[in-house]
Amino acid sequence: MAVFALTTAVPAAAQDGRERPAVITVSGEGEASVAPDMAIVTLGVVRQAKTAREALDDNNKAMAEVLKQLKANGIADRDLQTSGFGIAPQYNYPTDKNGQPMPPELVGYQVTNTLTVRLRDMEKLGALLDTSVSLGINQGGDIRFTNDKPEATVTEARKAAVASALAKAKTLSEAAGVKLGPIVRITETPDRPQPVPVYRAAVAKEMSDGGAVPIAGGENSYNVNVIVTFRLEQ
């Protein structure tokens, strides 16, 4: 939807004593899509035991195996980051024979260790998920598809946004019976364009390893919004 303002010249008696030129301001929206080249995966190990020490030792052992295997498969240290860790007591909430609640009973401890993995070889994603579960991952699996260097795609979206604004301005000026002049200001929305996943069945690909998890990467759509002000020729 076009958002525009048409401002006519004001009298010379304006506050600054000068006549202001007539302008038109429109919005422009641009979008460009590209296949993701990186996946960010969240993997978690959860272990429970009667004591915090036992739970922690079990968790450490499982996570150490996961890290070892990921590194053996070519994941660099810079792409492995601990993103969460917690130790929590576990309680049982009994009731008496009348169904009334009784004081909670401490039954053990739970340790959670969460790992964020940046995978730059998308072909390995299905196998990574499968291997991680086999090694002890039992929580997480959240996947975010992104692009390592999206600048070229964002540039395409910016060009499309400006072109959209120009087309709107031409239509509005012609409808108003005025001539469109040069651009006097371009403003992009302050938020950096972020990828919006676009899932398409055509791009779904089952990994060659029959035991791997089938993954559909789809495309990332980068959106840019601009506000453009044009001068109007009298």
Automatic annotation (TrEMBL):
The family database entries (InterPro entries) matched by this protein are listed as: 26kDa_periplasmic_antigen (IPR052022), SIMPL/DUF541 (IPR007497)
One Pfam annotation, family name?
SIMPL
Instruction: Provide the GO biological process annotations.
Output: DNA damage response
Q: Which PANTHER family match?
A: SLR1258 PROTEIN
Put simply, this protein is called SIMPL domain-containing protein
